[in-house]
What does this fold into?
Amino acid sequence: MTRKWSNTVIGVLLLAVMLFPLYWMLNVSLQPSGSAVGTPWIPLQLSFDGYATAVREQGGHLLTSLVVGAGSVVFSLLVATPAAYALAHFRVRGAGIVLFGILISQMIPGIVVANALYSAYNDLGLLNSIPGLILADSTHGIPFAILIMRAFLGAIPSEVTEAARVDGAGQIRTFVAIVLPMSRNALITAALFTFLFTWSDFLFALTLTTTEDVRPVTLGIYQYIGAYVSDWSSVMATAVLASLPAVVLLVVAQRYVAAGVSSGAVK
Amino acid sequence: MGEVATATRRVPAAALPARLREPWWAPRRRERLLQVAFLVPAVLYLALFFGYPVVQNVVMGFQEYTTRTFYTGEAPWVGLDNYATVLASPLFGQAMLNTVLFTVGSIAGQFCIGLAIAVFFQRKFPLSGLLRSLLLLPWLIPLIVSGAVWRWILDQDNGALNRFLGGLGLVGENPGWLTSTSLALIAVIGVNIWIGIPFNTTILYGGLQDVPEELYEAAALDGATGWRAFRHVTWPLLRPVVNVVLVLGVVYTIKVLDIILGLTGGGPANATQTIATQSYHLSFREFRFGEGAALGNVLIVISLVFALLYLRANRKAVRG
It folds into this structure.
């Protein structure tokens, strides 16, 4: 019994070390601005000035990130779900090539994609646009969503879909009315991760936007720290706000997250 | 779809097996077309957003592609000039060395610590599930956020790390973690290890769970416990998962940009410049897209060669 709890103590200590930077982020964000020198180890004087500044200066950027994230989730799922279903259940010619392509795509550096997209986007007028970012950011989500949903959808017994077909449901009806409702968990997991990947995107925000018009929060933070920083509390407040989706995700969907991290990577 | 269409055109209809002679609206043909249609959006997307960029990058690598190109539409063919410039630059050697050190250092650190934590969590103690999922946080928050936070923690004069070390009397003079050419790369590797530990722990923990309990019991009967059980039971069975973690780790680490740009921007004096950041720098800071593309292609080749060599070496090792 005591041995068990002593393991818990070690675990808590370990976690305290690992999460210290995040604690520090929270701590600094709650300090009055201008207390950069000798920040107390705990926020003795609670101040929300940092958050006020962050919302004032970065509120629009947060909103942009939210819109791009939501758009990317919808787009990625529309593209990835049918493909995942096909790869898991049909014996289509070329399925192996598609899977191989997805794996290879993970080796292509983002900077290579950005380099080529910049000139294409310039010609198409997609620079500094929300649709442009949604399309580019989906490179993070789509391959992952296909792999993870393929693993989940493969677990649906083919007897189920066959039964639906025997009852006269067409291919599309089977997919929409039978398979989709059954794969709710897979869809949630894929959606959560796609959102998080897009929300965290920095490279495409950096390379495919050139003006203030469309600016995700990751780039807002980069600009903050790119100049000399005098007010760390508002930088850290923005960082806290930009971390919220990750925290919410862990709290709300803990079991989906662990499943997503492992099955998406291994299968 | 196209495959079938061309086949029909080339071969006289009579020579075809019955299945192919059916018109597309015949139920069975329609069925197959529909099945393919499920894959079409994804294939198109992959082709446009991964295939096209790679092809375009290869082409750009042979062109003088600069800001002028955007106005005039001209990108003169320059053969291997971009590669010659990029590879002969003194920066290339340093960026290459930094990339290797950054990747090897990060992966070694992430993997060893991640594995140790995963093994620790196998002990099943109260709250272990909760602690394990909280551990994921550093991996889930945006990289640029981690960059910003660590930048402040590692600050030379007011950073938490130096205040802590100073308080313990461990350092006389505050080390400039991100500003000294000899420390910056080490600091960036350290931060990247911190980011990667959760991923490694989670996947390796999953792998450890799949090792059947009976094997440990059997090994214990033979007198193998602790380290020996790990060496002879756990490790061989964990090998496939280890491979996935290592290959993915290297492939992801080699192309990392966010964390380096956020922490040091490649500086000081290029001490943390890698092939990826250098490629970004050439394209988007100096607007020499052709040279940036050439360097990007070098990065792809390194990544591919590594993956192939590793997988091959591994297949040999498994075959014995």
About this structure: Chain A has a mean pLDDT of 88. The first helix of chain A runs from residue 2 to 29. The CA atoms of residues 98 and 104 of chain A lie 10 Å apart.
